[in-house]
Amino acid sequence: MASSMLATPVYAAPNTDEIKAEKEQKEKEVESVQAQLQTMVSKISETEEKLVSKGEEIQKAKEDLAAAEEKQQQQYESMKVRIKYMYEQGDTKALEDLFTSNSIADFLNQADYIETVHNYDREKLQEYVETTKKIENLKKTLEEDLANLEEMQTSFESQKEQLSQTLAEKQAEVENLDQELQAAIAQAAAEEEARRKAEEEARRKAQEEAAAAAAESSSSSNTTSSQSGSSGNQNSNTSSGSSSGNTTSSSGSSNSGSSSSGSSNSGTSNSGSSTSKPSTGSGSSSSSSGGSSTSNASAASVIVSAARSCLGTPYVWGGNTPGSGLDCSGLVKYCHSVAGISVARTSSALGARGKAVSSPQPGDVVCYVGHVGIYIGGGQMIHAPQPGEVVKVQSVYGSPWYRRYW
User: Fold this and answer.
1) Most buried of the four, 40, 278, 284, 335, by CB within 10 Å?
2) In 141-153, which positions are buried (b, 16+ CB within 10 angstroms) versus exposed (e)?
C-alpha cells in the first residue's frame, strides 16, 4: 500500500549539453578572431618599421637633393661669369641664349651651347643636371612608396578595429552562454532538490499511514503489557533506592593537594628573553631606495621637459629632429635620449619592452598598437599623432598600456 501511494513528480531539466556545445563553438570563434587580430597587429608593426625606414630614406634623399642643387647653382653662377667674359670678347649669342632660357636644363639643350661653352663646363653641368634629376626621381619614388605604405597602414588599422569589435562581440556571446549555462545548472539542481523533497514527503506520509494502521490493530495488547511493566518497575525502583544511599559516603574524598602542586611555577616567565632589537639593515635599505627614487624622478622630469620642447614639430615619417620633423616613436626615442636612456625606434618594440606599469606617472610611455606617446600626468600625453599634424598635447584615449624606461 505504501509503495502504491509513493508519487514522484517529473520535471523537464534544461538541456545543458546543448548550451555547452554552443559555448565551445563560440570559444573556438573567439580563438580564431584573436589569431586574426594578432596577425593584423604583426602586420601593423612590420608596416610601421617600413614606414620609418622609408621616411629616413626620403630625408636622406632630400638632403642629397639640396646639396646637389646648391652645387648646381654654384656651377651655374660660374658659367654666367665665363659667358659674360665671352660676351665682352664679342660673342653675344651665348649671352642671349643664357638669359632667354627658362632654366639651366633648357640652356643645356640648345645647340649653340656646344659652340660657346668649353667641353669641361658642359660635362660638369650635364653631370649635375643628371644627378639632380636622379635624386628628384628617387625622392618621388620614395614618396610614392611612402604613400602606399601609409594607405596600407590605414587599411590595417581599420581591419584591426573591425577585428577588435568582432572579438568583443564574440566574447560577449561566450559570456552570455556561460551565464545561461550556470542558470541551467542551477535550475536543474533546484528541480532535482524539489523532486527529492517530494519523494521524501510521499515516503513519510506512507510510513505514517502504515504506522497508524499497525498501532490500531495492536492497541489492546500494548495496554496489557504496559500495565504489567509498570508494576515491575515499581519493585525495581524500591530496591535500587535502598542501595543507593550506601555509596554516597565514599564520594566525599578528594585530592585537595593536587590543585596546589603546580601553582608554584605559574609566576615564571621568559618574556624578557624574547625582547627584539631594532634592525640596522632596514635603515640603510630605505636610504638607498630613496636615492634611486630621486634619480628616477629626475629622469622622468627630463623626459617630460624634452617632450614639451618638441611641441609644434611637424609629423615626418622617420623624423628624428625636433623642430624639423618627428614621428611618434622618434619623439619617444629623442625624449629618452635627452635623459641618457636608450630605447627602441618603433612603437611595437617600445610597447613590448621596458617595465609594465598599471598606474602611469609623468615620463612613462603611452602605448597603442602602432602608436606611442609620452605621459605627462592628468590623463594627458604629448605625441606626434599622424602625417599632416604636429607634436601636441592630447588627452589619453582608448585603452592603452604603459611602459616605463626610467
Assistant:
1) 335
2) ebeeebeebbeeb
Cα–Cα distance, 150 to 167 (Å, whole number): 25
- Residue 344 backbone phi and psi in degrees, to 5: -70, 170
Q: Is the dihedral of CA 166, 169, 173, 174 positive or negative?
A: positive
**Residues β-bridged to residue 374:** 365, 382
pLDDT tens digit string along 69-93? 777 777 777 766 766 665 555 555 5
Helices then strands, counting H and E runs in the chain, come out as 11, 8
Quick one: CA dihedral 190, 194, 199, 205, positive or negative? positive
Q: What is the DSSP letter of 89?
A: T
- Is residue 374 a contact partner of residue 331, using CB atoms and an 8 Å limit? yes
Q: How far is it, in rounded angstroms, from Cα 75 to Cα 80?
A: 9
Neighbour-count burial of 405, counting CB atoms closer than 10 A to its CB (0-12 exposed, 13-18 middle, 19+ buried): buried
Q: Which DSSP state fits 9?
A: -
Q: Which of 118, 310, 328, 335 is catalytic?
A: 328
For residue 290, the number of C-alpha atoms closer than 13 Å in the C-beta half-sphere is 6
Active site residue 118: no
Decide: 370 and 347 in contact? Cβ < 8 Å: yes
Residue of 310, 335, 367, 383 marked catalytic: 383
Catalytic residue among 310, 336, 367, 371: 371
Global pTM value = 0.52
Report the amino acid identity of residue 212. Answer: A
Is 310 catalytic? The answer is no
pLDDT in tens, 332-360: 999 999 999 999 998 989 998 999 999 99
CB 403 within 8 A of CB 78: no
The candidate with the shortest Cα–Cα distance to 113, out of 131, 125, 127, is: 125
Separation CA 327–CA 310 (nearest Å): 11
Short-list 296, 279, 277, CA closest to 288: 296
